[in-house]
Design a protein that fits this description.
- The chain is globular.
- The chain is built from 19 helices and 27 strands.
- α13 packs antiparallel against α14.
- It has about 625 residues and is an alpha/beta fold.
- Bound molecules: 6-O-phosphono-alpha-D-glucopyranose.
């Protein structure tokens, strides 16, 4: 995973590098570091911990120079120590680099390099790349008797990277070429920002916003050589290319905390607005349907679709499950939801008219990107439901739908989930109206959807009740989350939120399926959270609730306002507004987000930056 940045030009490089690393911290926050050409040498400053730790180090031990690279880490190989932090040094300091990705053959390369006399100072896979480049540089200088030229540097990066199995985005400094950054990519995203007399490198466009509007997205196996005055691009196999310059259409979103203590809470409260943004301009009242600008498929192609595959990871996968129920109910389209990490290596039989949607907040999740590419390779129209404009998945998809949820910074996803569910509801309406859904049914859905921002506002008024429940249960170590139909994915998502930020073991299950195993966990110290709003299946879930009570398990119910029956049966109840069953996930997920938040606070956990996690998982 990890985020990388680079700068070459006239500014104080460390200012851009640190700013960029803060913007990339969602990709990992185990350690951070920079390397800058400073008084004729490459000065490295790095430290385990968040980027703010690096800020403090730079305040006391600054580096001045106009060329540098930086890194924020999510550890894959090697512990999170100062020494394992990037940048890493190759040879005797001739090469310094930062890397995002995984070197799968690092063991064999390490042995070979050790035999050649290279001394490893860290336990990372990345150090292998640094020594490998240094080794090829040394060889080339020996054979050709040349001094270190720009061409030589590019060539040795190319030669070394051919030996790497796995994924990488790298930015490399050469001690003897102070006006040069070489960057290369295979599998991990890299974007170059073009300024006047300056160039920028970053893992995504976020760090470039406000610095430049012209960018070049590197493709796999491309290598770029940057000086303050020039950009040279070459493809490993195709040779020299002219860079395709694009205009950055990303605007800096609101990333301030405002009056909130944490991003997660802020984002929970933004949901009435973010789902409204997801719907804005997407209703076609006269046709009683939804409309999308970017699907890039004509109505005939869309009508021929006979199957939908939704692929995603984490919370986005849970939104996909809600989508499956919606698309099957309203569009009558057989739908499957696949973990992207599985789909990328499976070979499920897909019909010619299968349409694939990758669902992703960040647009950078490595498995989702790989699954999408695999489906594209097989010729399926592959679309994205994505939040981050210009992200890798948004760019590579054949078309798609943006969430317009604004930046989501808390690592535990909240507003992206409800926005994804909203977009999937619009999609079900749209594809439904092309098939069996009647005009009046379409009108009804539009009217009901329009009411949802207010319903979410109302759902948020459960906050005090949730706080009390959290105070009562935060000391428990196991939770069950149970729901059926549309509320089964909500149960999964509620359990995931609890695990992610409070480190409590929580399992989500279909309420009836609980009898086939998890019921063995029920006892006085295992609370069950029942998502049990009114609806067709309500009496059935009620029976499941009774089964838990009969075994002395504490019950917390998420129920519809005014449901006294549930209130009497449950130990604690949190009310949400009554909405149509297919819209229930939008309101029932809110108390579960708040519950995870308050339990985590009471357990003294870092709500926005939970341990071991990252906002965007860019390794497989
Ligand atoms: C990480 C995040 C989750 C997110 C998942 C998928 O695990 O911590 O919050 O749901 O990645 O991310 P995506 O950006 O593809 O939705």
């Amino acid at each position: 995973m990890c985020g990388i940045v680079g700068y070459i030009g006239f500014r104080n490089a460390s200012d851009f590098l640190l700013d960029g690393l803060h913007r990339l911290e969602y990709r990992g926050y185990d350690s951070a570091g920079i390397a800058v050409f400073h008084k004729g040498e490459v000065a490295v400053r790095k430290r385990a911990g968040r980027v703010c730790e690096l800020d403090r180090l730079i305040e006391t031990d600054g580096v001045e120079g106009t060329v540098g690279i930086g890194h924020t880490r999510w550890a894959t190989h090697g512990e999170t120590t100062d020494v394992n932090s990037h940048p890493h040094v190759g040879g005797n300091g001739e090469v310094v680099l930062v890397h995002n990705g995984v070197v799968e053959n690092h063991n064999s390369l390490r042995t070979q390099l050790q035999t050649l006399g290279y001394v490893f100072r860290t336990t990372t896979d990345t150090e292998v790349i640094a020594h490998l480049i240094a080794h090829h540089l040394e060889k080339r200088i020996e054979t050709d008797g040349e001094i270190c030229t720009h061409e030589a540097c590019v060539e040795v990066v190319e030669t070394a990277m051919r030996k790497i199995e796995g994924t990488y985005g790298v930015a490399v400094l050469f001690r003897d070429c102070p006006d040069l950054i070489v960057a290369a990519r295979a599998g991990s995203p890299l974007v170059v920002g073009i300024g006047r007399g300056e160039y920028f490198v970053a893992s995504d466009a976020g760090p470039l916003v406000g610095y430049t509007e012209e960018v070049v997205y590197l493709a796999d196996h491309e290598i770029v050589a940057l000086t303050s005055e020039s950009i040279d691009l070459l493809h490993r196999d195709a040779g020299k290319k002219s860079p395709s310059i694009q205009v950055l259409d990303q605007v800096a979103g609101d990333t301030s905390l405002g009056d909130f203590e944490h991003y997660m809470l802020k984002e929970i409260y933004e949901q009435p607005q973010s789902i409204e943004n997801a719907m804005r301009g997407r209703f076609d009242e006269s046709e009683a349907t939804a409309m999308f600008g970017g699907l890039n498929l004509d109505p005939q192609q869309l009508r021929r679709v006979d199957r939908v595959v939704l692929t995603a990871c984490g919370t986005s996968w849970h939104a996909g499950l809600v989508g499956e129920y919606l698309l099957e109910e309203f569009a009558r389209l057989p739908t499957e939801v696949e973990y992207a990490s599985e789909l990328r290596y499976r070979n499920p039989p897909l019909t010619d008219n299968t349409m694939v949607f990758a669902i992703t907040q960040s647009g950078e999740t490595a498995d989702t990107l790989a699954a999408m590419r695999e489906c594209k390779r097989k010729g399926h129209p592959t679309l994205a439901i994505c939040n981050v404009v210009g992200s890798s998945i948004a760019r590579e998809a054949d078309g798609g739908i943006y969430l317009h949820a604004g930046p989501e910074i808390g690592v535990a996803s909240t507003k992206a989930f409800t926005s994804q569910v909203t977009v999937l509801t619009l999609l079900a309406l749209y594809l439904g109206r092309m098939r069996h859904l009647s005009y009046p049914a379409g009108r009804r859905m539009i009217d009901q959807l329009r009411e949802m921002p207010d319903k979410l506002r109302k759902a948020l008024t459960c906050h005090d009740a949730v706080r009390e429940v959290a105070a009562k249960y935060h000391g428990f170590n196991n939770f069950l989350y149970l729901g059926r139909l549309y509320n089964f994915p909500v149960a999964l998502e509620g359990a995931l939120k609890m695990k992610e930020i409070s480190y409590i073991h929580a399992e989500g299950y279909p309420a009836a399926e609980m009898k086939h195993g998890p019921i063995a966990l029920v006892e006085e110290k295992t609370p069950s959270i029942f998502v049990i709003p009114r609806g067709g299946i309500y009496p059935k879930v009620m029976s499941n609730l009774e089964e838990v009570r009969a075994r002395c398990g504490p019950v917390i119910a998420i129920a519809c306002e005014g449901d006294d029956t549930v209130a009497d049966l449950a130990d604690d109840v949190i009310f949400v507004p009554d909405v149509e069953e297919y819209l229930q996930p939008l309101v029932t997920s809110i108390p579960l987000q708040l519950l995870a938040y308050h339990v985590a606070l009471l357990r003294d956990c870092n709500v926005d930056r939970p341990r071991n996690l990252a906002k965007s998982v860019t390794v497989e």
